[in-house]
Write a structure and sequence with these properties.
Helix content is 46%, strand content 19%. By secondary structure, the protein is of the alpha/beta class. The termini are far apart.
Amino acid sequence: MREANFYATQDGAKIVKDVHIKKALDEKVYRSNLLDEKIKEMIERGIILIDTAGAQVGQVNGLSVISLGDFDFGQPSRITASLGLGRRGIIDIERESRMGGQTHTKGVMIISGYLENKYAHDKPLSLSCRLVFEQSYGGVDGDSASSTELYAILSALSELPIKQNLAVTGSVNQKGEVQAIGGVNEKIEGFYKTCKVKGLKGDEGVMIPRSNVQHLMLNEEVVEAVRRGRFHIYPVSTIDEGMETLTGVKAGQLKSDGTYDSGTVNYRVNKRLAEMSQRMAALAGPLRLEEEAPSSEIEALAKPPSKP
């Protein structure tokens, strides 16, 4: 308010008006946003890889917040999932490299709980899936990207591409409910700025937890872009709802016989996991025989020679 009062005095105004408050806020951002501008510049030049068009399997635009004193800004991050046969389950590369915080690790473990609860009632999960924040070198913490990481995994399993014109934020619980997160305004504004430097086409947007709608207080430019249909905000309550938004394919509801409608997201995920489980079981036999062969040969050699 002191800064707004200063600008009002400069204008010779008797009272502080909304234009003076806006001027004070804009000047505060200008004094603090050098790092934000540099990051957006690197995105524009293709140094930091972020897609805002097309669709990719196992790749989602996540959102994080960087704090510099009293200035916070949002930054998009590419989150990817790579998939293969195995028994290790979900592997958090951030944790393995000791760059992940405890809350982030908890979020990844919750993802494992969701997958087991939804798809592993009649088969074991026979996968090794690695999750990573690409081009992240300063450590990762918080669970606000856990839903984003889960979308990347489901995309890799279903082989359904994720729309890259959308970014995602939100934590998730083991029941697949998308939960509120902090910094929702900064994250939305950060992705909007990214889309601007990449070339705003009008179909971009951010998917947020429905419980965060009450916290929206976006800047004037983003509000105007949403009003004109040039930028979009999609509130979701569940992972199924989010996958439908990101892929354009119906999620599919569990039927009484324990199956899903053919072609739906959950049908494709469940089918892929069943195939991986069967393949793993088929490989387990030969692998076990190979492991046991040396010991059998040693036992044979250890036997005393038979008498003539």
